[in-house]
Structure formats: C-alpha cells, structure tokens
Design brief:
single chain; YaeB-like fold; 5-stranded mixed sheet
C-alpha cells in the first residue's frame, strides 16, 4: 500500500494559501482549495506516476514530478515517487508564475 508524506514546506504552503483565500475572499474559497489539494494528493496514491516529469537544470531536483491542483490551474503540486518505500512525497505546492526551480531547490 502506498503512503503519502508531505514536507513541512508543502504543508506550510497549503495552509498559507488557504489563509490567503480566507483573507481576500471567503471561507468557501479556502475550503475549495483545501478539498482540491486533498483530492490531488489522494489521486497520487492511486496513480503515483500520473504527473509530468519536471525538467529543471538542478540535479537535486531530478525525479520530481508535478500535477495541477484541480480547479486552481495556476497552482502546481510537486512530488516524488519513492517506489522502494511505496511512498509519495509531496515536496511543495507553488503558483506557476513563481521562480519554481529556486524555490524547490531551497526545500531539497
């Protein structure tokens, strides 16, 4: 059975984005964000290799994959499959307009 792990950076990003949506919109948008990210992560347990491989220059980011957060197409969920440990590791959740390689390199 595949297990899901979430890094501290990813967990913090998920909470901060929900808080942001609460502050600029309402609880409904924040709840939709939380439900969508939860659904995205659960989908990786069923189909861990469904995401696209990342093409970053940094060797530290080799093996990283990404998927869109459903309903939030500008947000990307980055993860690694760890088949030997039957684990999916969610590394980060970021807005696609940010400097992805730099931000992901900080977490690796």
């Amino acid at each position: 059975m595949t297990t899901l792990r979430v890094t501290e950076a990813a967990a913090l990003a998920l909470v901060e984005q929900a808080d942001y949506y609460r502050s600029v919109s309402d609880e409904e948008l924040a709840a939709r964000w939380e439900e969508s990210t939860d659904a995205a992560m659960r989908s990786l347990l069923r189909f861990p290799e469904r995401g696209a491989p990342c093409r970053f220059r940094s060797p530290a980011l080799a093996g990283l994959r990404w998927i869109f957060v459903p309903g939030f197409p500008r947000h990307l969920l980055f993860y690694r499959c760890e088949p030997d440990r039957q684990t999916v590791l969610v590394v980060h959740v970021l807005h696609g307009a940010r400097d992805l390689e730099s931000l992901l390199s900080e977490t690796e």
